[in-house]
Structure formats: C-alpha cells, structure tokens
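Internal ticket #5521
Category: modeling
Description: The requester needs a full-assembly model to guide mutagenesis choices. All entity lines are attached below as received. Residue total reported by intake: 545.
Assigned to: D.W.
Attached entities:
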Amino acid sequence: MNVYLPIAGMSVDPVVILAMGAAIGTLSGLFGFGGGFLMTPILIFLGIPPAVAVATQTNQVVGQSVSGALAQWRRGNVDLTMGLVLIFGGLLGSLLGVWAFTLLRKLGQLDLVISLGYVLFLGAVGMLMLVETAQTLLSQFRGTAVRRKLHEHGWLHRLPLKMRFRRSRLFVSALLPLGIGVAVGLLASVLGIGGGFLLIPALVYMLGMPTAMVVGTALLQIIATTAFTTVLQAATNQSVDLVLAALLLTGAVIGAQFGSRWAARLPGAHLRGLLALIVLGMCGKLAYDLMATPAELFSLAGAG
Amino acid sequence: MTRVLALAAAILALGASFAQAAAIVDLSQRNISITTGFAGGDVLLFGAVEEPADIVVVVEGPAERQTVRRKARVAGIWLNRDAETFVAAPTFYHVASSRPLADIPEAIRHRYRMGVDQLSLASEQPLSAERRAEFVAAFVRLKQAERLYNAAPGKVEFLGHRLFRTPLALPDNVPTGRYRIEVFELRGETVTQTSLDLQIEKTGFEARVFDFAQSQGLAYGLFAVVFALMAGWAASAVFRW
C-alpha cells in the first residue's frame, strides 16, 4: 500500500519512511543528536523534492527534540538567559535562511546549495567523528584519557556587550551566543538540520558552558528555532508536508526511545566509527553527483 | 467491464438512429479522485462510429507556465546555467490512434496537435530555431520521463467496425485540474471532432491538507508545529509510563 504525500505530490511506501525514521531515531537515541543531517539527504535520495525534504525535516526535528528537552527541563538543566539569547540569534538566522531559500528556489539554484551545504557539513561531521573515534580507541588501548584544556581566554572573550549568565556562571559577550544562534538558524532553514552537532561543541568549547547545562539549553534553542523555521517555510514556500512529517516523527520517536535504552549496552566507539563512515559515504555520493557529468543536462523547474 | 459494454451497446443502438452523427464517446470515469491510497489510475475511453473511420484520441491536462533549466559545468560542478519558459504548455499529454500517426497527413496532425512533435509550445522569450528545438525536445523528454507525456502513442482498438476503445493510464504524480479529451474521426481528408472533459482532483484528507497549506500557510505552519510538539510529548509520556 502506498501513501500519497499531498505537498510533495507523489506517493511513497509508508513502511520505507517509517523504517528510515526508526533507524535514524535509533541512531539519534544512541548518540544524542537530532538526525536531521542524515534524514534530509536520504529523503532527497528517495526522490522527495529537496525543498519539501528540508522544510518537512525541520518540523520533524521540533517533535523529536521535545522529549529530551522536557527531561532536561525537569532536572533544571536549562540556562534560560543563555537560551533566550541563542533563540534570538536563531530567529534572525532563520529569517535570513528562509529568505535565501525562497530566493535560491526562484533562481533555480536551491538544489545546488542544499547539495553543496550537505557535502561540506557531512564531510566535516564525518571527519570529526572519525577523529574522535580514533582518539577514544587509542586512549582505551593506552589506558589513558585524552585531556583537553577546559577554558581558554582568547579574542572571543574580548568582544563587547558582555552579559552575565548566572546558571552557567559565565560572563561573556552576548555577541557570541547570538552568532552561534544565527548559524544554527541558517542551518535549520537551508539544510533542515536541528544544529545540535554545531551547537553543542560551540557552547562547550567557544563559550565554556558547564556540560550539564549544554544539552538542555541547546534543545530549547533547537525547538524554538526549528518551530519558527517551520512556520516561516509553511507561510512563504508552502513546502511542509504534514503527512510526511507524521510518518517520519512516528518512526523517529519510537526509534529514539529504543536507541537511548541500548546506548549503554552497545560499543559506542565502534558504532560511532561506523556512523562516521556512513556519513562520509553520503557526503561522497552527494559530491560525486555534483561533479559527475549528468545523464540529463535539462531539468523541469517544479516543486524543487 | 460488462457495464461498459452494455453502455457501449446502448450508445451504438442510439447512434444507429441518427445517420451521419459524429462519433459517440464516453469515459469509464468522468472524475478521478486523488486520495490517500492513490497510486495512479486507469480510465477507459470507449465509443462508437457510424461508419468505419480512423480514430485519434488526444488528452491534454491543464496548460501551465513551465520552465526548463539546463546545467553547465562551472569550476568542476554541474549547476543550472540557463533556462527557457513555455507560457502555456500542457501539464499532461496523451495521444492514441487506431492507425500509426505517421500514416496521417502532416497537415492534419499539425492542425489538431496529434503527437508530442506537434505541440504548440510558445516560449516567453523569442528563441532561435536551434535553441527552441533543443529546449522543446528536452521538455518533452523530461515530461515523458515523469510519465506525464506518453513515450509512444497508445493504440485505439476496434471491436468489429464500429465499437472502439483505448485505455488511458494516469500515473501517481498526475497533475490536477480539468483535462480536455478530443476524439477525432478521420475519413480521408474529413475530420469530425468530439470533446469530453475529465476532472482530476485531490479529495478527502489529502485535498484538505493541500488546500490548507496553500491558502493559509501561516496557520498551517503553526498547526504543524503544535502537532509535532504534541507527538513528541505523547511519545515521551508513553515510554516513561
């Protein structure tokens, strides 16, 4: 049986979408990321128009981040002041991103920018994960932990507009979280990524936020930014497919629950290494598609 | 099927009483609804002629502005470089005939737009003959790849000398709107034409979602967000319990 997607204007096998959602949900539960950066390219490979894939995936991230955010909120692990500055940045980035998205779509360059964005993003994420895996495995082998400097004072800390963030015990320029927020908003609107992959390391290494506060605050910002982006995309591009979002969400939330349960029992470092290879593989496929001479040079400007 | 044949027989009997009338034709369905389970549909066009004749059936979907883009290599990457827009190109096109189209005089084929090579595609910008040919060929090729223009003309089958029928397959990505079906009866140089309409629309849940998204984007977006929040919350509540 097939299900017709009203916005994408095509029919898909719901089992395939549910299974994809569940698989990526499981991975996200295992590793604690949103999974948008895996799902959007897979949807595009499945033939969903890129514009619809990106906007719908943004909506999916909203739903998927809720349970994590609620759990962190109950434990009091959210720095609301920091969250609000990040959200403000996220909204700016999202506005800018949706405006660029609409313009690129009109110019017929949206698919190209999405592909290029993913090549860069997946390439960077894959390499980072691979390096991290190698370090973990190496330190396990040697029996020592890799040590990092906790807090560095560089030019980032000399920026103006200093603000006090009590919960995180930080006194830094508001421009820093604002800038990080803008970057996350851009990623959400143009690539359909929650941005946790960028946000969490940025909060830890650039701002020096206490690790306990990072995940909850990041999830709060991701929910607000993706929710705002979904509304903007729906209002300007009419590219959010509710039926597709419902299928993806169903698979993902169930998968995530199992993933987080299995996380303790599975060999994390090896899995992470495997995932890094998958991510690099997807990056390679997208890069190849951009560079190989296409069989058909012409295309119809449609929903994409 | 029996219903169709009975109807066709009735039409035949009716037709016999009006000498020299045009062909009588009908469709197995005048309305196609795109619902949740829609995976394409089949419509049967059938009819009867007074005297033996050749039949050509042309089906055209609603005309729309459509743009064809061409990629070129820039710094090692293939990207869309130029484009041409056709102002009113049929979104769907299907032709079927009882005799190979090539056997029908070119003048008639051209006049009645019989065959993908006879479409009148007006471009927005004036084009050189060479460029026009290139973009028109690409447009038709892409439409054929999407199964929206038929790759090879279909066949109109005769049952005896008077009853004829031809199937029309609609893919799952069929555009919505009012389809114009022209049935041409060819006897030498004389052409008699009969027209029919076929309505294809999204109905039920799909239609409501689509209309909601198109007409009230902002409310639709808010609804999508609330839905996602509720789904996420419900899932975490269920699994905690």
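Resolution: model delivered.
Comment from assignee: Residues 15-19 of chain B have pLDDT under 50 and may be disordered.
Ticket closed.
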